[in-house]
Design a protein that fits this description.
By secondary structure, the protein is mainly α. The chain has a domain of 76 residues. Helices cover 18% and strands 2% of the residues. The radius of gyration is 54 Å and the shape is elongated.
Length: 431
C-alpha cells in the first residue's frame, strides 16, 4: 500500500508542474549518425562539451579504420575533417593526397609511404630512393643538394635530368681546359679517368697502361700533366720519350748537363730516387767502408775519383777513414816528411779541419807561459826526425854547461841533459 501511495503522489505532483517549467528537448547530434552503441558520454563530460574527456572511449583506428600515428597524433581534428559530422574526407591510410598536396606533381611513381613516413614528412631516405632510379648516388654526390642537379625543380617536382657527367660538370670541364688540360679529344665517359669521390684529384687514370709502362711514383705523381706532355693531345715533350721509370736522362737531360755533364754515367737511379732529386747515394756502402764526414762531405766527387768510372785517383786507394796518408801524401810531404812525422794523421788532425787539433800545452806549455812565441816549428825542440819523444832544451837555452853547473850547484839529481831539465821544470818555469 505504501508503494502505491508514493506512485500516486508522484503522478499528482507531475500533473501540477506548469508546461513552461518542463525540460526542453535536446538538439540534434552535431556529429550526425554515430556508430551503433556510442553515447555522448563516451567522449564528453557533464561539465562541458569541451575539452573532450582524456579517457575517451572512441578509438580512431578501431572505429574508423584509419589509425593515427606519428605526427597525425598531434594534429587537430579540423585539420582533416571539414565539419563536426566527421563524414569527410573518406580517405584510406594510403591516400595521402586526400590531405597533402602532391609537391612532385605526379613525377614520382608509387605511393607516398614508399618515401615518406608519418613521423616527419621531410624525413626522406634520399640515397635509398635514388638507388631505384637510373643514377644511384655515390661519393660526393651523396652530399650534393638536390637542386644542384634538379635545377628546374619547383617545390620537389624532381623531373628526370640527363645522367651524363658533362651535363652537370660542364663548368669543371671548362676550368680544366682553361688551366691547360684540354679535354676536347677525350671520351665523354668521364668515369674513365675520374671517380665520384672528387672531381679534382680523384682521377683514376692508369698512366702505366696508357704510357706503356711508365708508372707515376714519388714526385712524378705530384706533377701536372703539362710538365711532361703537350696539351691538348698529350704528346711527350721529350724526344726520344722515356722507355720507362729507369730512363731518367730522357726527361732530365738538362739537370744532368748542369750537375754531371763531366762524364758521369746516366744510370741516375744509382744515386737518385723518384721521391727526391737529392742524392740517395751511400758512399760508405759503395766504397766498402769509407764514410764521408766533415770536409769530405763538401769535396766534389772529382776530387777523389776519375770520372767516368769512379776509379780512385790515389794508389793504393785508402783502406778507410783512418788511412789519411793514402790521399794526403802531398800534404804530408810538404809539411811533415822532413821531420819524419808519423803517418797517423788523426792524432793531430780531424776530418772537420785540416789544421792541427793537437794541444801541446797539457804536456808542456809552448803556447802559453814563458815559451809562448819562442819557437818557430816543431823542429825547434824535436831535433830527431820521426821521434817526437826526443827533444832538446839547448837550441834556445844556449848557456854553457859551466854556467848551468854553477847555477845548479847543490841541486840534487842535476845533470846537464834536457830530460833532467824537464824533470825539474815540467811547466817551463825557472823556479
Amino acid at each position: 500500500m505504501r508503494i502505491l501511495g508514493a506512485l500516486l503522489l508522484a503522478a499528482a505532483c507531475a500533473a501540477a508542474v506548469p508546461a513552461a517549467a518542463q525540460q526542453t528537448p535536446l538538439p540534434n547530434n552535431p556529429h550526425g549518425q554515430l556508430k551503433a552503441g556510442m553515447d555522448c558520454a563516451d567522449c564528453h563530460t557533464s561539465s562541458g562539451w569541451k575539452p573532450m574527456r582524456p579517457d575517451a572511449k572512441f578509438d580512431h583506428g578501431r572505429d574508423t579504420g584509419y589509425g593515427l600515428n606519428g605526427a597525425h597524433v598531434t594534429v587537430s581534428c579540423t585539420r582533416c575533417h571539414l565539419d563536426l559530422k566527421f563524414s569527410e574526407p573518406k580517405a584510406k591510410p594510403s591516400e595521402c593526397t586526400s590531405c597533402h598536396v602532391d609537391v612532385h606533381r605526379g613525377a614520382m611513381p608509387g605511393e607516398c609511404i614508399q618515401c615518406h613516413t608519418e613521423r616527419d614528412f621531410h624525413d626522406v631516405p634520399v640515397a635509398a630512393i635514388h638507388q631505384r632510379t637510373g643514377f644511384p648516388l655515390a661519393g660526393a654526390h651523396l652530399n650534393t643538394p638536390c637542386e644542384s642537379c634538379h635545377k628546374t625543380e619547383a617545390g620537389g617536382a624532381f623531373s628526370a635530368v640527363p645522367r651524363d657527367c658533362v651535363s652537370c660538370h660542364r663548368a669543371d670541364l671548362d676550368r680544366a681546359a682553361a688551366s691547360g688540360v684540354d679535354h676536347s679529344g677525350f671520351s665523354r665517359d668521364c668515369t674513365t679517368c675520374h671517380t665520384a669521390l672528387a672531381w679534382a684529384g680523384g682521377a683514376n687514370f692508369d698512366h702505366v697502361t696508357v704510357s706503356g709502362g711508365f708508372g707515376l711514383e714519388g714526385a712524378h705523381a705530384l706533377q701536372r700533366c703539362e710538365a711532361c706532355h703537350v696539351v691538348p693531345g698529350f704528346t711527350v715533350k721529350f724526344s726520344p720519350a722515356p722507355t720507362g721509370t729507369q730512363d731518367c736522362i730522357a726527361c732530365h737531360r738538362t739537370d744532368y748537363q748542369t750537375e754531371h755533364g763531366t762524364g758521369w754515367p746516366t744510370t741516375c737511379t744509382e744515386c737518385h730516387n723518384v721521391n727526391s732529386w737529392a742524392s740517395s747515394f751511400n758512399h760508405t756502402t759503395v766504397s766498402g767502408g769509407f764514410t764521408l764526414e766533415g770536409a769530405h762531405t763538401r769535396a766534389t766527387c772529382e776530387s777523389c775519383h776519375v770520372i767516368p768510372g769512379y776509379a780512385s785517383r790515389f794508389t793504393p786507394a785508402p783502406t778507410g777513414n783512418q788511412d789519411c796518408i793514402a790521399c794526403h801524401q802531398a800534404d804530408y810531404q810538404a809539411q811533415h816528411a822532413a821531420d819524419q812525422y808519423p803517418t797517423t794523421c788523426t792524432t793531430c788532425h780531424s776530418t772537420s779541419n785540416w789544421n792541427s787539433t793537437f794541444n801541446h800545452d797539457p804536456e808542456f806549455p809552448i803556447n802559453s807561459g814563458a815559451h809562448r812565441g819562442q819557437w818557430a816549428n816543431c823542429a825547434t825542440c824535436h831535433t830527431t826526425p820521426g821521434n817526437l819523444k826526443a827533444f832538446t832544451c839547448f837550441n834556445c837555452h844556449t848557456h854553457s854547461q859551466a854556467n848551468a853547473d854553477a847555477q845548479h850547484r847543490g841541486r840534487s839529481g842535476y845533470s846537464y841533459t834536457s830530460t833532467a831539465c824537464y824533470s825539474c821544470h815540467p811547466r817551463g818555469r825557472a823556479g
